Request: fold
Amino acid sequence: MIATPEATNPFFVNLDQIFVFLSNWLVGFLPAVLRPVAGVVLGVVAIVCVFPGLFALTTVFERKGLGRIQNRIGPNRVGPYGLFQPVADGIKSLTKEDIVPLRANAVVHFLAPLVLVVTVFMGFAVLPMGRNMVLVDMDAGLLFFFAMGAATELSVFMAGWSSRNKYSLLGAMRAVAQMISYEVVLLLSSVAVVMITGSLSLPKIVAAQNQYTGVFPHWYIFTPWGLAGFLMYAIAATAETNRSPFDLPEGESELVAGYHTEYSGFKFALFFLGEYLAMFSISGLGTTLFLGGWSAPFSFLVWVPSWFWFFGKVMLSIFVFIWMRGTLPRLRQDQLMNFAWKFVLPFTLLNLLVTALWRFMGEGWARWMVCTVILVAAYVVMGRVEMRSEHFGRRSYRYAE
Amino acid sequence: MLGDGILKGMAETARNFFGSFVSDERLTTVEYPEQRIPTVEAARVFPFLVYDGANWEAGMRCVACQICEKECPPKCIYIEKSADKKPDFVGKQQFYPTRFDIDVSVCMSCQICVEVCPFEAIKMDTQFELATEDRFGGLLYDRKELSRSNEYYHSIHPTEAGEVDARLAEEKAKVEARAKAAAEAAAAKAAAAANPTQLAGGGS
Reply:
């Protein structure tokens, strides 16, 4: 790292570590025996407060952003510029009647939103949100994250199955099919990063990217395999969080609301929260893997607090999610599956080979050329061949005519 | 290439997003309670009864023929015919409604009552803020609440009201001409009856 005058300025160093110091200072009041536990509890409380707060802000900015994309104004009634809209929404969902269908399996119906929110929150435990700011520094943090991510599928199916409603069940089956298909891609695109870094620990992956050549950082997105991996990761992440254009599980035009059709009041709010938290956590992981985590985009900006970069990058990803939602129509089920299995998965597998090539070709411009050519050629050819639309001709009727 | 359509679409939405902050033409939203746009002339919401002159009761054009009540598809009109008569706009004695109720919550704004009325007595209003806290009495409008002056009708539907006035004036002129002709004929007859001797004398 290039030491700029600001980077060594004690004020900026302290600002960078302010949350760490704050936590240590608060924990310092307790007897030494309780300190490790209290530190963890404090971290959990911080995560449980910060991300739902971000969720509240995101809901209102999403609605305003979508409004602007559609040349509307968006919510502007509650508070200044409609910023207190989440408060009104929260009060509304808290005071609504909690309806459980008569034939529903009440226990599972009750547990499903809890399982979703809890497992999504667990994912945040291993994300490094700033320098020295990771709740649990696990050696296999990436593995833990994906294990928790896979558990959200369980909650979706619990919700759909226990509701005893055909729309819920159809939505849940779609969701599970979609999430399992794209989970494979999500994992394989991350494997590329693991192959280069040689570690499953997320802080180590960030540390590997926190180096600079000139002013430019060594983020993995600035390599051919990293860019390809990031694109595939972004597609899979969108599908995994059921965001548009992959929002078939809750396609309101055909399924009412999908797996949470039978949820009302605060349970519905929990599903909503879980969905957005999943977006945050998956954006956080994408940031960590490909966008350099908490590292600054230019070496002369390293004095800006690391947590600012992490949350800035996450919010930028959220903005892209919203932008895509405002742009793209929903896919059809067969298009979704074809895209996953015929394009995204083969391309991700190829990317693994390219990553290996990159790893073993050694430094130099040759690997840039070779890897870029292979990936671009594969993208163009596979896009043409696998994704060509099939023309079935005019439909013929055997008996109707 | 795969994905270029997506990029094109995203450029379009980005243009909308930033454009809506700089160009007022893009933002077509009217923030309703504070901002209002004038209603279009052909707008129709709920019927009202037209009266001529200043007194709504005396000038009411409705003659309680009950055609609208019978034609109303959701049957939201209720009319009671009077026992006595009052003069209409040409001075002819006509019945009038002692009760004329329309239920706002049942009316479907189809305008059939307006189309079947032979007396130009019922027309469509453009007033759309009909919400009330009293969902029974407040939604049942009686003939006083339904009455609007012809001037009001002119103010909301000027073209249509002009045509109606021309038609009524023509009708009135026709009736007056007929009355005049009848009066002349009657006068001639009376004159003839008054001087039978002259006629007889002339004949003999």
